[in-house]
Amino acid sequence: MDGSIVISIVIAFLVVRWFRRFMNTATYLPQWDNVLKQSWLVFIVFIVIGQLFSIKDSHLNDWYLFITFSGVVVALFMMRSYRPARTLLLAVIPFMFCFLVSTLLESIVPSFAKQYGDLLDSSKVFASIWLFTFVIIARNQKKTIEADRLKQEAEAERTRMIEAQNADLEQLVQARTAELMGQKEELQQALVHLQAAQNQLIQSEKMASLGELTAGIAHEIQNPLNFVNNFAEVSVELVDELKEELAKPEIDKDYILDLADNLTLSQQKINHHGRRADAIVKAMLQHSRSSTDERQLIDINALCDEFLRLSYHGLRAKDKEFNAELVTQFDPKADKIMAAGQEMGRVLLNLFNNAFYSVSEKKKRKIGPADYMPLVQVGTKRLSDQIEIRVRDNGLGIPQEVLDKIYQPFFTTKPTGEGTGLGLSLSYDIITKGHNGTLKVNTSENEFAEFVITLPASDGISVS
């Protein structure tokens, strides 16, 4: 067998092998890939046959290559939807045409082929250049397509991961939503309990105010009752002396008249202090009958004076050693305002209690000069169409860092157990929301605190 034929068969085998890899026939032409994969058996058969029969045709090697390229052309045609296959098809067809014409002429008309050998060789060279050029183009196209494929796969993978993450996030959102719904229900229950506790604390604050008011009333009414008891005892003694004198044989009329005058004076004192106690009781009954919704004309000067004394005596009832100087400056023009007496009394009582507590604590802590004397001042003043009430003490004052919080519910500067933190909050609401007034504070820490209440005047008369 001619060595050139073997070389041609080897070249054909390598062409098929390169074609399979380059065109990735396992993916784009799977039905032909197994056939191409086993083509080496066909080439071995050709070599064996040639060796057995001692085939030495010089043109046989060309036909081996032609058949191989023909198979490649058929495969490329079947893969024409693949862009690099179309490019290779354009590259191989001219090469095949030149190769076929040259082989046919050399086999059938050798003289013609010899005469135009240079032209045929040139056409083969041109066809080879054409082939390799388009192979390079197809290779670049394949790289581009492969890059696009990898990009699409990466995009698909990214999309799949995003979808998976979205699914996971959706599950997390659903779980979190269920958790938040559970927390919402718990918070709603907590809010209900908190509101109930708040109402209970407000009621406790009111009861605490009532307790302090009651202590003040008890101390205030105790004075006239003591006078009544004392003068009643004196009256009994005077009556006994009068009986003894009348039982004597000789009656001293002047002494009897003197006893009668003293007895009359004692009865007048009893009557005076009895009326005082009666006035206190009636005032408290009137105060207790007032409601937050009912407005009536009240004497603001009398109300301030009354609750100042009640607050003071209430603290004195708890602390016998406490003493303070009380200074009142009531403007006669600030007499009547339209207000709810019970609510205004609660506000004044709260401000007075805070003032007395502040000066008492300052005295106990020994802050200030050694001769420090607790002082609480209360004043009223008519300002145009408003009534102003000032409550000032020379106690601990209010620290600047908590000044913005004093009207917040449940905020207190008092130690635990000595205040609910609702007094000033309720007072602020009563003055601002219930009576269309204002409640402001001026203070300096460890020096003084002054609360200023302004209320609309009831008569509508402007005072210049």
TrEMBL record:
Instruction: Name the reaction it catalyses.
Output: ATP + protein L-histidine = ADP + protein N-phospho-L-histidine
Question: Pfam families recorded for this chain?
Answer: HATPase_c (PF02518)
Could you tell me which species this protein originates from? Spirosoma aureum
* Protein's name according to its UniProt entry: histidine kinase
- Tell me which UniProt keywords the record has, alphabetically: Coiled coil, Kinase, Membrane, Phosphoprotein, Transferase, Transmembrane, Transmembrane helix
Q: Which InterPro entries match?
A: HATPase_C_sf (IPR036890), HATPase_dom (IPR003594), His_kinase_dom (IPR005467), HisK_dim/P_dom (IPR003661), HisK_dim/P_sf (IPR036097), Sig_transdc_His_kin-like_C (IPR004358)
Which branch of life, at top level? Bacteria
Q: Please report the stretch or stretches of sequence annotated as the Histidine kinase domain.
A: 216-459
Mind telling me which residue stretches traverse the membrane in this protein? 6-23, 35-55, 61-79, 88-105
Known SUPFAM superfamilies for this protein?
A: ATPase domain of HSP90 chaperone/DNA topoisomerase II/histidine kinase, Homodimeric domain of signal transducing histidine kinase
Q: What EC number(s) would the UniProt record show?
A: 2.7.13.3
Q: Which residues form a coiled coil?
A: 140-204
An example Gene Ontology molecular-function term: phosphorelay sensor kinase activity
